[in-house]
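Q: What structure does this chain adopt?
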Amino acid sequence: MNFVTFRTDSDPTPRLGAVIDGAIVTLPGDMEALCTRGAAGFAAAAKEAAAAPASARIPLGSARLLPVVPRPGKIICLGLNYADHAAEGGNQRPDYPSFFLRGASSLVAHGAAIRQPRVSSQLDFEAELAVVIGKTSRHLSEADALEAVAGYACFNDATLRDYQRKTAQWTIGKNFDATGALGPWLVPASDLPPGAAGLKIESRLNGTVMQSSNTARMLFPVAETLCLLTEALTLEPGDVIVMGTPAGVGYARKPPVWMKAGDTIEIEIEGIGVLSNPVENEAQP
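A:
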């Protein structure tokens, strides 16, 4: 069973829900608290949702989904984590991950618009696997690293390429408002292969496949990435780790392909689902 954070027109308060038969059943607590309960907690929540009467179900179309974790404490992203993507940008295979941070204000939910900012037309797409942490962790080992993972979601690390290249640090091009799409829901780690390995990952722009790869091709898989991160810092429940993108992004094409207002971009990961977002222009002041 998949789990969402959502709200409705009649109740703007973010709620936790389980998705069942095209509807949402509201659950107590929030996503961060659920993530701390591990596989047993997800199983109990699924059982509770399945037992709810039909009258308690909210049609998916009547709810507004939010990013699965609306305000993560940390969003840590990896660059150049697929060899073919590194090569298409003229980069060497890295010996250590290119880590960078996103802020929570850059997030946008499934179905909501990714915003084309007024200052740039170079809005690119990046299909990525998102890892949601469920356990406070430091100095993880390969043997226990995956125990820290609560679940997985899709991510679109939409990037303003000209701003990314204004400085040696990528931060500014990766943090425009409403450019980091996270969703549509959280799939518990127990429902997927360990480390979400071996899953097809794809992006489609207006229905045309742009990227198509497999999470088995990550240079730094989930367990190794968590070990490297926790050498330096503490991961906490609700933190999101975004695992990098394969080849096929827009800037590497000739001519480049940028997202623009009126487009629809989809990220699909096998076993997780489809994250879909329209693209619209930033409103004029």
